[in-house]
Design goal:
The protein is of the alpha+beta class. The chain has a single domain, classed as Aminopeptidase. A seven-stranded mixed β-sheet has the order 1-2-3-4-5-7-6. The two termini are 22 Å apart.
Length: 165
């Protein structure tokens, strides 16, 4: 079940983001380097305060994944010049604890974000690191269309009715 995050979820999500950033660093990929210090996971607190932080919980209400879903900020609007033309949500910081990797939690998180966007009549947009070999096939498999390739980022968009492979 997906729900808005509660204050006690924040330390879990901060830990997951930090651990994932460390794991990505071990793979020598330049992604999420910003989160390699615990202080920089403060953004999770900011997401919570802006009411944009979501958590996937298991049957016992234990958090097992998270994402942030916004109506956009300066970062998004710089990447998506048509942001005023299309009502869209922007997906950020999709994270699953390393210990739960491979259990299709990422798929459940994406499906939850897509449902929220669909219910609002919005498209769903995201950017991701271009050089992470996992991300492009993952998002394509989940019905996102590659809209643009930038120097370091890929821009994806999902719209209601997109085929999920």
């Amino acid at each position: 079940m997906i729900r808005k995050a509660i204050i006690t979820d924040i330390p879990h999500i901060q830990k997951w983001i930090y651990e994932r950033a460390k794991d990505i660093q071990k793979k020598e990929l330049s992604q999420w380097e910003f989160y390699l210090t615990q202080e920089n996971t403060q953004i999770v607190q900011d997401d919570f305060e802006q009411n944009t932080l979501y958590v996937l919980v298991d049957k016992s209400e234990t958090p097992i994944g998270s994402f942030t879903l916004t109506l956009g900020d300066d970062w998004d609007f710089n990447l998506w010049p048509d942001h005023k033309e299309k009502p869209s949500f922007y997906l950020h910081r999709v994270v699953v604890p390393l210990k739960l990797k491979g259990e299709n939690i990422g798929t459940k998180l994406i499906a939850s974000a897509q449902k929220i966007a669909s219910n609002a009549g919005y498209s769903l947009r995201l950017d991701c690191a271009r050089f992470n070999p996992f991300l492009k096939p993952f998002y394509l498999q989940h019905g996102f269309l590659l809209k643009s390739t930038l120097e370091e980022f890929l821009l994806f968009e999902w719209k209601e009715g997109a085929e999920i492979k």
